[in-house]
Structure formats: C-alpha cells, structure tokens
Amino acid sequence: MSSDLAPTSIFEKNRDYLCFDLETKDLAPKDFSLKNLAALGVSVACAWDSRENKMLTFFEKDMKKLVKLCSERLVVGYNIRRFDLPVLTGYGLKLEGLDVFDLMDEVERGLGRRWIKLEYVAQGTLGEGKSADGKIAVEWFKEGRFEELAEYCARDVEVTHQVFRHGLEKKFLAVQFPEQPKKEFPCDWA
Questions:
Q1: Distance of CA 1 to CAs 52, 56, 97, 117, Å?
Q2: Residue 180 class from Cβ within 10 Å (0-12 exposed, 13-18 middle, 19+ buried)?
C-alpha cells in the first residue's frame, strides 16, 4: 500500500470492488499512528459489494469475512489508507499488495490540498451529505445503539459509493466548503 498520491489508473469495465467504511469503538488519540489505530477496534463496518450488488454489514465478530473480501476486491473508500485499513490490521488484514483506491487521495490531487472532509465532497458533488458526525458513532457504540450505528455507517458507504460512481461516470467531483463557492475538479481514473 503506497501512501504517495500518484494518479490512479486501475479501472476495468467489470471489475469487482468493495466500497467500505468502518466505525471504531473509540476515537483516535491525538498522537495516533498507523500502529496504534489497530487498537481502536471496530464497532461496525459496512460495504457495498459490487459483485453481490448489495450492502453488507459487519460487526466485530464478522471481521474475518470483511478482511477476506478486502483481499479479493478493489477496496474503495474515503481516507481508508490513513485510517480504516490500518484499523483492520488488528483483525489480520495485510496491507502489502492490497488493491486500494482512496477517494481522499484523489480529492487531494484534484484540489492540491489535504484533509478535505467527505461531507464537503458529498455536498459539492451530490448536493447532500452524511447523516451525522463520526464522533456520534463512538457514543452510540458505548450506549449499545447498534442499529443506529449500522445505519449511520451504511449511509456513509452510500455517500462514498455515490461520489465514487459520479467521478467514474461523469469524470469530475466538486467540493462545497461552508460559505464558499463550489469548486469542481476533473477526475481521470480510467
């Protein structure tokens, strides 16, 4: 898994992919590193599986199945190189040789700036955003509100998948920062 932001040219017409997101049991510490992210644990993960053409939900007991799917498909997500995939290493995921497409890297390349929230990309590209903030997911886990947690995670995956498909099909994405004009930028992923 490379952390560079070289252009990605990885799409074949009928390639299987897994668009996923996960929520952790705790918030990342301020001094986090890839090594200590695995200790956060997964409360829930959701994934859109293009081969099955459906949304899948995984709780901690299901992580081996998710790890297996990640090794069999192109893994698509937002900020997955720096967060989600390192968290999954705590469940046996091997990052070496993993086939990854991180939308955050593509947004950074398109805008020339780092750490753009998925919310801003979704608002600019789709005109709609996420259903909540990730911090609430940790609270829901601690309160045992697993159904709401799974719904929140699935919504994040839906948004990520729609942004991904928009970029693939329409060849551009947009960002809508609060109280600023929308900024569009081209995508050339094929």
A1: 25, 24, 6, 22
A2: exposed
Residue 24 exposed, middle or buried by CB count within 10 Å (0-12, 13-18, 19+): buried
In this prediction the pTM is 0.88
pLDDT value at residue 4: 42
Q: Given this model, what pLDDT does residue 7 score?
A: 38
How is residue 129 written in tokens?
Answer: 């955003």
pLDDT averaged per 10 residues, the chain (length 190):
41 79 85 76 96 95 96 95 94 94 93 89 88 80 94 95 94 92 86
CB neighbours of 79 closer than 8 A, spacing ≥ 6? 102, 104, 118
Strand order in the sheet with 54-59: 54-59, 42-49, 17-24, 74-77, 100-102
The CA distance from 23 to 181, in Å, is 31
The pLDDT value given to residue 134: 72
Residue 134: name the closest of 116, 119, 115, 123 by CA.
Answer: 119
Q: How many CA atoms lie within 13 A of 42 on its CB side?
A: 29
Q: Furthest-apart CA pair in the chain: how many Å?
A: 44
CA angle 98, 100, 106 (to 5 degrees): 155
Residue 139, Cα to own-chain centre: how many angstroms?
A: 20
